[in-house]
Amino acid sequence: MKLFVVLLAVTAAFAGPVRKPEDDEPSRFQEGQRYYYQYEAETLSGIVGASERRTGMRIICDVEVEVPERGQLYVSTPKCELLEQDPESWSPDWFRRAPTSGEFSREMAKYSLKVEVSRGKITGIKAHKDEPVTILNIKRGMASALQLPIDDELLSQQYQSTNDVYGNCTAENKILEIRSNNQIRKVQLNKDLTNCSRPNKTHSRESPLSLVRNISLVQQAMNSTQNCTYTMSSQGYVKEVVCRESHLLLALSYNSSGVQANVTQILTRVNKPEKLNIAKGRDDSDRRITNVTYEFEAEPVPANKTLNTTLQVLFELVNKTVNETTMEAPRLFTKLVASLRSLDNETLHNLLPLAWNCSQTGNCSNKREEELSRAYITDALPQCGTWPCMSVITTALINSTINGSRADVLLYALAFEPRPSLEVINETLRVASALRSRPAMLTLGTLINSYYNNNKTIDESRELPEPVRRSIELLRDIIGEDCAPFRNEIDVEKQIEVNRQVLLALKSLGNIGKPIQIFDESVWRRSAKIVPTLLRCAENPIIPRNISLAAIQAVRRMESTEELRSELMSVLRDGGRDVEMRLVAYLILMKNPSMINLRDIVFQLKNEQVLQVRSFMASHITSILNSEEPTLKGLKEQLKRVVAEEPLPEVEQDIKRLSRHVELSKEFTIPFTNQTVAGQLQSNLIYSPDGILPRSLVFNMTLNALGKSLNVFETGIDMQGLEPMLEGLFGPQGYFPDLNLISLFKNLTGNNPYDLLQKKENEIKKDYKKFDDKVKKSKVVEDSRFLANQIHEALEDLHDDVSHKQLPPAISGYLKLLGNELAFGDLEDLRRLIPNITVNDLPSLSTIMKKMAEGIDYNITRSFIFLEANHVIPTGMGLPLNISVNGSTVVALRVAAKFDMRKYLQQDVVAAGLIAPSAAVEFVGRFGVNLPLYGESGVQLNTTLYHSSELSGNVTLKGTELRFNINKTMKPVNLINISSEQYLVRGEQVERLPGIKENRTEWTNCTSSLLNTTALVGLDVCTSLAYSNASYDLFAPRFPLSGPMSFNVTVLPTDLNLTTYTLLMKYEKVKRPVKEEKPARKFFGLRRQKSVEIIDLLVVNFTAPGQNLTRNISSQLSLNRNRTEVVWNFTIPELKNISMAAGVQNFSVPEKNLTQFLASFNATYGSKNFSNWLRVRNETLNLTRMENGRQVIIPVNNYSYAWNISLNDLYFSVESDLVNKTGNWSSSFNVTYYWDDQTPILDQFRPEYSIKPENYSKFLVLFEHVNKTLLNETLLQSTLNFTFGRQNISLVLLRSNNTQNSTKALNVSWVNAGVLRTMNITYEYKNKSTPLIEKIERVWNMSLPEWHIALLSQAINTSMEYNSTLNFTIYSQNRTLKEEVERYEGKLRQKYIDTYGEEAYRVIPSWYNASMTFAVRNETVPSSKPYPEVITTSFNISVMNPWNKTDIQNLTIVGKLVNDSRVNNANISYWTNINITLPLVNANISLNASVLNNTEGLILSYNASGLRTNFTSKINYTHSSYNVSMVFNLTSPLYNMSMNHTVYNSSESGLVYIFNSTGSTNYTLPIQNFTLPLVDRIREMIPENVTKPLQRLNITIPSIIGNISLPAFNLTIPLNKTLQLLNHTVQSNITIKPKNITLSLNASHPLFTLNATQEIVKGGPLANMTVYNVLNATVGEYLRMVNSTLNRTLEVARSMNLTNLNVTMVKEELNIYKDRLEKYMYKSPLNITFLNDKILKPIRKMELPELKALREPLAEMARELPKMIDELTPQELKDLLKKYTPEYLKKLKIPDLKSLSLKTGNF
Q1: What SS3 class is residue 561?
Q2: pTM surpassing 0.70?
Q3: C-alpha atoms less than 13 angstroms from C-alpha of 512 in its C-beta half-sphere
Q4: Distance between terminal CA atoms of the chain?
Q5: What is the tens place of the pLDDT at every residue in 1107-1151?
Q6: Which long-range contacts (CB under 8 A, 24 or more apart) does 1187-1195 make?
Q7: Counting beta carbons within 10 angstroms of the beta carbon of residue 986, is it exposed (0 to 12), middle (13 to 18) or buried (19 or more)?
C-alpha cells in the first residue's frame, strides 16, 4: 500500500502542469473540422433456407459532420436516395429507385442533428422541433454508427456500456490491429441485442377483444446480434464503419435458417477533413433535447375522408358471405376494421347510415344482405378502437339507430378496452346520461378504472380529469345522500325504477374503485363525499337489502385506509346486522388488513355469537393458512403470527347447514424457468339464520402468472324468502306432496328438509315444546299421507306461536369478468321480459301447433379479431423491426326447424330441421422492417382454417316405425381446410413464395379407392395433403416455414340421382316354445328352466336409391335371452353380397370351475372375408401345500386369452396365458403378425395385392418365476425372454440370501443375427463381523466376454478405529491384428484374415486399478498422570500410472487433533496438524494451528508451509500487562513480508500502538524443472524420424541424468534485468502514543529510493521526505538491460552445444505478474492497476531533452533487436533444432522473439 502512495507521488512529480478537463478530454473528432462520409444502409428480409427471394430497402446519403466546438457534432445529410429491392430481379443485391425517393431526400436534408459526445460516447442529441420522428430515428442510426469509445477505454475494458439507437447495450470489443504507438487502428464491437434495455411502446391501436395484447416475450425467442468493425485514421477519427446486424426468429428455425432480417450499415470517409470556418456558439433555440435511443411514433390521427374504399370492402364482404362464410371473410373483416380506423369523425358518421340502411341506398339487394351489413358494421365498430368509432357508437345508441341486444353488445365490448382514452370515457358518459342502461353504466365504471390503472400520475397530482369527474358526479347524484332519493314516492313502479337506478349506480361505483377516494378529497362537504354516503347507505334500514349489500360491495376496489378499515370493522362487530352484510365487510377487510385488524378479527371470531358468521370466518382463515396463492403469502405470514398468539377456536363445520368458505389453490413452476403459475378456485356459501336454504353462493376463479394476479371471473347468486315457495310446491299441501322427492333430498343431503326446518325454528325459540312433543309421540309409519299431515300440523302450530317477519321472495345473480362487474339480474328483470297477457290474448291450441309446424329460421353471423398485437425492435438503421400477429374469425350459423304434431292422435308426427355452420379463421404474422410513409419490406405468414357444412332432414314417427330422412348434399362440402402460405411484403404488394420444391409431398386419397363409398353412400370423402418436406435438408427451416402447405378433407357427391338417405328402425319381441328342456346358459350363471324362449329383434334398414343402385342395406340384431346368444346380421346383397355377423357365446362349465366366453365377428365382401374373434378363459384349480404342519387347499386361477383377426390369407393373432403353481408361476405372450416393409400400408389393402407367407413374424414374451427357498436360505429365480424375428433377448435374475450374506446376480444373453452375446452382473453382501470387530464387505462385478469391472467396498469398525476401503479394477482384452498380418495392406491383408480367421488376431490384456482408503483412529493413551487426547484421521487415494503399471501415485491427507489442556494446566489448549502429499509433483503441504488459554493470557498461532512458501501468524495476549501482539510472516520465492502489531500499556506514555512492516520482492525468470530419472522413457518419447537419421550419422545421444528445463527449446535470454524493475523493498513503522504519532517509510526500487518520516504532535505535523536517483537510474538501467540482453544472446549462440543445453520459457509480456498485481490491488482505494500504466505512462509524456533524444534510438533498437538475434544465430543450429524437436514439444506455444523484446512504446 505504501509503495503505491510513493508511485503516485512520482507520477505527480513527472506529470507537469494539469490542463482543464474539457480541453484535455480526448475526442474522435477534432474541433473546427468538417468530415465527409458516404452512408449506405440496407435491410433484407426473407425466409433463409426456404427461398432465395428477398425484399428490402437501401438508403444512400452524403453525410457531413461539423465540429464547431469540442464534444459537439452537427450531422447533416444534404443528399439522400431511397431504393427498394427490385422484385423483377432474382438477385437480392439489385435495387431500383423508390417512387418516394425524392420526398425522402428532401425531408432528410431539411434539418441537421446536433450530437453531444464525451470520450467518444454520445451523451445527448438536440433535434429540430419540426423534424419528423421517422427521419430523426434514421439520423439516430447514423450517429450511433459514428460513436466509438476512446482508445484508453477500449484497451482497458473488454466490455463497453453504450447508449445508442437500440437503447442501453453492452458491447464486447475485440482489437484487430494496433499501431506501434499503442494507437488502435481497427477494432470490432459485438453486441447481443436481446439484452439491450430500452423503453417499449406503451400504446398501440388494437382490438379490445384481443386475447393477447403484449407479445414482448417474442424478443426472448429471437437471436439478434450486431458486429461493427471500425477503422481509424492515424489522427484517431473514424475512417470507416461496417456494421452487420441479424435478427433471426428462433421459432421453427434450424441451423440459422428461418425468418430473418439482416441490416448492413457502411459509413466511409470520402474526403479529407476540412477546416471549418463557422464560428462557435450556434443558435439551438429551435431544437428539442432528446436522447439517441429509438423514439416510437405517435399513433396517427384518423384523417381519411374517403368513403368508397370502406364501403367497397364492406359490401364485398357481404356479397361473399350471403349464403355461407368463405375463406376470404376473415381477411376482409380485418381490412374493414383497418379501413374504419383511418376515417375521421365526420366521414365515419356519414358512413353509418349508408351501411345500416343499404337496401334504401341500393347497395343491398335484399334484407339478408342488409342484415349482414348491419352485423359486420356492429362487430367492426367496437373493435376499431379510435375516437371517431366511439363517437359513432354513442351517437347511434343515443338516437336508437342501434338498439336492443346489438346495443348491449357494443357497450360490453367497450368494457374490454385495455387503454381507454378520455374521449372514450366522455362518449360513454354521454350514453350513460342519456340511456341510464345497465351496459352503459357498468361499462362507464370499468373504463374509468382501466384509465386510472394506465395513468398512475393521477395518484401524484391527486386530480381527476373532467370526464372522470363528471362521471362520478352523475353516479353520486343518482344514489343521493343515503341511497333513498325518493323515499316518499307512492308510485310502486316508479319506486322500483328508482331502486334499479340506485343499484346500477352502486355497481358502477364498485367498478371504479380508487378514483372515488381522489374525488372525495376535492369535496369539502361530507354529505357530498361518496365513501361516507356508501356507509350511510349500508346503515339505512328503509332501503332494500340488495341495495345495502351493493353499497358495502362498492368499496371493494378502494384503497384500504385506516378510516375505511375501521368502518368495515364496525360493520363486522355489529351482531344485529344482516349476516351476509357482515361477511361482505369481513371479506373486503381481509384484502389488506393491518396487524391490529387481524388481532381484532381473531378476537371477534372467538367471541362471535352468530353461528353462521363464526363458521364462515373460521373456514376463511383456515383456507388462507393452507393456500398456495402467491399473493396471499404476506397475509398468510401475518395470520400465522396472530394465530400463534391467539389460537383459533374449534368451530363446527357442516356445509349442509353452516356457512363455509372453500378454497382450492395450486402453484406450479414453469419448466426451465424460475417463473411460477398459480391457480385458485374459491366458493362462498352463506346461510341465513332464518331459513334452511343458502342465502348466497359465490364462485371465483383467479390465475397468477409472472407475478401478477388476474381475477378471471366471479359469479354469484343471492336468494331470500324461498322457503314458503318450497313448502307450497313440495309440502304436504303443495302441488307435489309425493314423499319420493323428500327421500331424494334426504339421499342427497343426509337430512330430511322438515327436520332442517325444525332445527331452524328450535334455534329461534328454544322453549317451544308443542312441536317437539307431537313428533316424539307419533309412531313411525309407512303411510306417507299421515306423515305429511303430521308435519303440516306442526308447522301450523309453529306459525301460530312464533311471530316472525317473512322476507319477500327474491333471486338475483351477477357476473364479474377480470374484476369488473358486467352483468346482474333479478326476478324483476324476468318479470319485465314477460308481458301482461290476459286469457283472451292466449292463442288456441290449433294456432300454436300451426306456428310450430311453420317453424323457425335463424341466420346469425359474427366476426371477431381475437388476436391483435405487435412488438417493435429498433434496428441500427433507425428503422423499426415490426413483429405483429393478427387473428380474426367470421362464424355463420343457419338454423331452421319445424315440428308438426297436428296428427299426433293418428300416431303421425313429423319433425324437420336444418343446420348449416360455416366458419373461417385466419392467422397473419408479419416480420419486417418498414419506413413509415415511404416503404415497407418483410415476411408475411398466412394460415387459414375453414369449415362449411350443411345437414338437413326430418324424423317421422308413424305407428311403431321410426324413420329418419337425411338429405344428401348436392355440392362439395369442405369439412376441414387448412392452408399456410408465405409472402414477401413489398410496400402495398405481396409476393407469394414457392418454398422448397425438392422433395415436395403432394398426396390425395379418396375413400372410393379403398371402400367404394360411391357405391355405398353415393359420396366420396377425399383427403389431400401438400407440403414441402425439408426434414433431410440441414440448411432449411422447419415446417411450416419450408413452403406452402394445405390439408383438405372434402365430401364430394358422386351419385347425382341420390337425394335422400332413409333409416327405418323397428323393434319386435318374439316368443316361441322350447323344444328340448336343457339347462339354458346365462352370461354369468344358470337360469331356471322356461318353456318359452324370448327373442328380442331390432331391425334397421337403410335405403339410398340412386342412379344405378337402390342401396338397400338390412341389419338385424337378435338377442336370445334363454341361450344367451347375440347375433347380428348385416347384408348388402346389391353390393358384392356384403354380409356381417356377430355373436357372443358362453362355453362356461360351472361344475368344472371353468369360465369361457367367445366373441366373434365375421364380414364378407365379395371374395373378401374378414373374421375377428376373442376368447377369454379362466380355470380355477385347487392346489395343496403344507403350512405349519398341515395341508392347506389354495385355489389358484389360470387365465388365457386369445385374439385372432384375419382378412382372407392375412391374419393377426395374440395369445396369452398365466399359470400359477402357488409361488411358482409363468406367463407367456405370443403375437403373430404380418409385416411387409416393401409395400405401402394402404396398397396392401388393394384387391390386387397378394399375401407373402415369408413376411409373417412372431413376437414372443415368456416370464417365469421360481421359488427355491430352503430352510435357512432364500433362493428366487426370475426369467424373462423376448423373441422378435431373428432377435432374442434373455434375462435371468437370481436372488439368494441367508442370515448374514446376500447375493444378487443378473445374466443377460441375446442373439443378434445368429451371434450369441452374454453379460453378467453380480452384487454380493458379506458380513464378516465378530463380537469385537464389525466387518462388512460389498462386491460388485460386471463382465462381458471382452472386459470385466469389479468394485470392492470394505468397512471395519472397532471401538477405537474406523477404516473404510474402496477398490476399483477394470480388465479388458484388446483384440488386434498380428504384426505379420498388419504389415500387409488392402486385399492381401483381407485375404489373410479370411484364411486364418481368429488366428490372425492376438488378444492383449489391459487392466487398471485404483483404491481409496479412509480411517479415523483414537490414539489417546490413558494414564494416571495428565495425558493428551489424540484423534488421528487419514485419507488416501491411489491411482495407477497409465504408462507404467508399477508406478502408483498417491494423494495422502493425514490430520491430527490434540487436546492437551490437562497437560498444560490450561483452560483451553488444542493443537492440530494436517499434512498433504500431492501426487506427480512430489510436494508436501503442512498446516499447523494451536490455541492456548491459561491464566497468563491467550496465544493463537497458525503456520502453513509447502511449495517453497511459508506463512506464519501468531497472536499473544497477556492479562497482567494488557499486552497484545500480532505477528505475520510470509516467505516465498517471489515475495517476503513481515508485519508486527503491538499494543501495550506504558506507565510513562500510556497506551502505545506500534506497527512495523517490511516487504520485499525478488522476481526471477519462472523456470519449470521436472525430474526424469527414467532415461528409457525419454528415448521412447523421441520419434523414429529423429533417431533413424542419427543412427545413420553414427551420432549417439548420451543419457541425461539430472534436471531438464521444459517445455520448449529456446535461446536463453537473460530478462532478469527486466524483472528487476518489479523488485522493491518497503519498510514502514507506525507508533501511536497519547502525545504524538510517529510514521516512517523507507522504500527502495531500481528506479528510485525514498525515505520519509513524519511526526504528528499537538503543534502540527512535521514531515521529511527524500526522493533521489530517479532519472539517471531509469535511463541507465534501461540501457544496461538492452546491452546485457544482446551480449548474452551472442555469447550463448557461440557456446551452444547439444549435450548441455539450458531451456527456459518466459511468460509472454509478463502478464502473470500484471495479473497478480492487478488482483492484489483490485480493491485498493487508490485504484492502481499496473506499474507500467502508473509510472511509465507519465515518462512517455516527458518533454525533457535527454528523454526526447533517447526515445527514437530506443525504439529503433527495439525494432532491430529481433532481426539481429535471428541473423546472429547459425543456420545449422536453426535447422537442427527444427528437425530434431519432438512432436509433443512442437505443439507447445513457444514465445515469439517479439514478445521477448522491450517495447519502447511503453516508455
Answers
A1: coil
A2: no
A3: 29
A4: 24
A5: 777 778 888 888 877 766 777 787 776 655 667 777 777 777 777
A6: 1194/1222
A7: buried
